[in-house]
Amino acid sequence: MTHSPVLAARELRWQTRLYLAGTCGYALLTATLRAPHALRQEEAFRQVFATLCSQLEAAMQAEDMAPVLLLETHDAEGPARHYAVADARAAKALAIRFEETHPDGALLDLDVMLSGGQPLSRSDLGLPPRACAVCGARPATACITGRAHSARDTQAAFRAMLTGAEDEASRTARLALLSLLYEVAITPKPGLVDRADNGAHDDMDFFTFMRSAAAIAPYFAQCAIVGQRADVPIDALLGYLRPLGLLAEQAMARETGGVNTHKGLIFSLGILCAAAGRLSGSRNAEELCALAGQIARPALGDAADASHGGRVRQQYGDMGARGEAAAGFPSAMAALPVLRDAMNRGEGPDRAGAKALLALMAQVRDTNVLYRAGEDGLALMQQGARDLLARGVPSEELLTFSQAVTARGISPGGSADLLAVAFFLYLYEG
Questions:
Q1: Helices assigned H by DSSP within 24-73
Q2: What is the pTM of this model?
Q3: Number of folded domains in the chain?
């Protein structure tokens, strides 16, 4: 008797689960896509599945569960990931919370199997069965076995879930990506990579930043979706974002050959995207930054590392990006009116961005500048920026100042990051 590819894949998946549970010595958590078979092969659903699995992994790591990915497959039944977990009941409880409270949790099926091959069900935890994704009124198994809904209605319901889940997060991610592209494109920028030259850098150029921005773009949508999770307290969100940030840094490093183009903005914009997810529908930059400050505050307790910012913190006591984020991005908020007013006057992104950058350079204790040029270099840069702003930023003088800053090897990367944040806030407000 010939079986259909779907039935064969279903049997193989069951046998795979039994084998993994019996040989790994731990309980098994299996994640699959909850959607009609006709939709499981579509790229949009596969992308959401990958994003949700990353967020599930982050949620488990945040609760010290440390899942181990044993196997990832894709067949006629769709995508699947199998994880070894130490505590079956804790994993099942978290899986149920994820399915029911995550904004996109309805698109995942999370099943736990004990090491002996016995499935762990909701009823084993004293919980009712999962509701039908189409009607929400009856248990899902009852609607499936009774064929309560037509294939057309079922597919429409899941497509609506996918569209509704993606819209807000996709919009937030698009704004984050635009802010990265605007920042690097502003020309001229003193000491920084722009469209004309590499500033004070010999290891990166304009196209390095373009490749890096494209590599980390999916991360921002993930952060926005994490922010939408009602079950995660605000002061715990940073713990969920950090594993995603590490993955984004790895993607950046792969694309740039190890050059640090956007590490600071992975941190800052990731937090802002999570705040935007929590404030779904809001368009108030001040409210957004206040919430972002609450999310970022636990980072103030991080130990100083061996990065440039960490060394500056040890030498000068400046907290850099962590301090700016935890305070609610006051420098970016101060630059926002400069950017907004120039754009409203029709000066264009180049001119408006240059003015906002100079406003930041004039005030911010830029840890990149402190690392490269110390207090003297910082004072020189700040005074030059103030003088330019006082004279209305004549174009020729801006170019001369840019060349002088570059010649000194000064690169105000912290101010550039805050310019990207200011652009994000400007775009966020619409």
A1: 37-40, 43-62
A2: 0.65
A3: 2
